Amino acid sequence: MDLQRKDIMAHTYQLFIDGKWRDAADGATMPAINPYNQEVHAQVPIATTADVEEAVQAARRAFATTWSKTTPGERARLLNKVADLLDADADRMAVLETTDNGKVIRETGSQMGYAARIFRYYAAWADKLHGDVVPLDQKDTLDLAIRVPYGVVACVTAWNSPVAILTNTLPAALAAGNCVIVKPSEHASTTTLEMARLCEAAGFPAGVVQVVTGAGEVGAALTGSKGIDKISFTGSPGVGRMIGSVAGGNLKPVTMELGGKSPNIVFDDADFDRALVGALAGIFGATGQTCIAGSRLLVQRGIYDRMVEGLAKRAAQIVMGDPRLPETEMGTAANEPQFNKILSFIDAAKGDGARLVAGGGRADGPGLDKGFFIQPTIFADVRNDMKVAAEEIFGPVLSIIPFTEEEEAVQIANDTPYGLASGVWSENIGRCLRLTRAIQSGVVWVNTYRVAAPQAPFGGMKDSGYGRVRGEAGILEFTQTKNVFIDFSGDKRDPFSMKF
């Protein structure tokens, strides 16, 4: 890591619309605040509705005149070029993202390399959307079922992992032949704008990749535009419902990932030390600000007390500090509203009678006084109906819930409106297989937690959303099926009867 570049100088960004960098129409900007020291490190434009509509029209022109005529091989070449540029710029991008949202450099650094891998993965898919020849009863008719792009895609992303979340969708949508307009979170926009710069440097035609920044009004203007053909959204269920309602009114398809309240289940026969580390990774990795956080730890009673004690001891040893330093294990809450939200959940858990065994408030100490630091917090003897266990916190707060039998664990695990991720820790393979079927979640990790791969599909059930990113499923989300009948019989037919 190039620590000489660790201090990002304040920079004024611009919108990227129709291949040009320019200010918002009214010149408005918002500050990008470093959650570690609360200093402004950049100014980000606030797009107007006119800016958004200009981006939509530019995307429609680009799709009609340029991008829809580009060969799969050319799309692959451009995606691979972005991957190369991202690899070359990974250190700077990682430091910038850490500066923007407080995530530790040891994770943002690895995420940049992972993002480049996803670009290369979907570059390889660009010329493999083969379609099918469909056998028909009509012997003189050839039927083709082919995959075609939607056209213009809106991608609305979240603040917790801007580049990683963006690359779940952007390269797949581009490989499939769509133009993409990205709206990042107002709390972390800078690395998304830098990704647009990499796409520009790679040679994408004007209008194919664009970025408009701002708050919820900008997202509403983008997702509500009738010039958008498909929407991808990552964020809260509340905003997801609003987007889904508007999209439904416009008859536009949506892919959504809306968060979770994931159960991480540890049985008596599990490898205890591995399970303990997995529990820590599940909730304190990324300061718990991840949709897949294993925020509900279900522990069988035979090892319950030992697990509570072990986790409390290890949580107290987590190294907090400047997230740009490689020795730091846990950074800050990403922004002040999130910081206050996490603290309110901690207070609610105390009021509900959960037993506090670690943390429980704002972290203090050398180097922590200016940042949005929260102690790694653990509550034991939690009931599943307590607010701390029922609602998504998006922070370093763990609820430990005891259970006795396998059936009880499944019941508790599924007693939530969410269904994104889950974990099972056991040496009994039969039990593991039973739970992978019984748990209602889009992802189940067995004897591991918080693992991802470009090839592996990811997405949720229930209130955690629908549709998938990554893997083959991820690129199919950005295509639709077109059917082509070709009659080569030369026969005349009855014009008043449909041919079957």
Mean pLDDT: 96
Intertermini distance: 65 Å
Q: What can be said about the biggest beta sheet?
A: 7 strands, mixed
User: Strand order within the widest sheet?
Assistant: 15-16-17-14-13-18-19
Number of helices: 16
Helix share bin = 25-40%
Low-confidence stretches: 1-8
Strand content: 15-25%
Key features?
single chain, 500 residues, alpha/beta, seven-stranded mixed beta sheet, 37% helix
What does the model show?
It contains 16 helices and 21 strands. The protein is globular, with a radius of gyration of 24 Å. A 7-stranded mixed beta sheet has the order 15-16-17-14-13-18-19, sandwiched between helices. Strands 10-9-8-11-12-20 form a 6-stranded mixed beta sheet, sandwiched between helices. Strands 1-5-4 form a 3-stranded mixed beta sheet, with helices on one face. With 500 residues, the protein is an alpha/beta fold. Helix content is 37%, strand content 19%. Helix 2 (72-88) packs antiparallel against helix 4 and helix 3 crosses helix 4 (105-125). The protein has helices spanning 49-65, 72-88, 90-101, 105-125, 162-167, 170-175, 190-202, 216-223, 237-249, 272-284, 304-315, 336-352, 387-390, 406-414, 429-438, 471-476, and strands at 11-12, 15-17, 20-22, 29-33, 40-45, 132-134, 141-149, 152-156, 179-183, 209-211, 230-234, 254-257, 263-266, 296-300, 355-358, 377-380, 397-403, 421-425, 443-446, 465-466, 479-487.
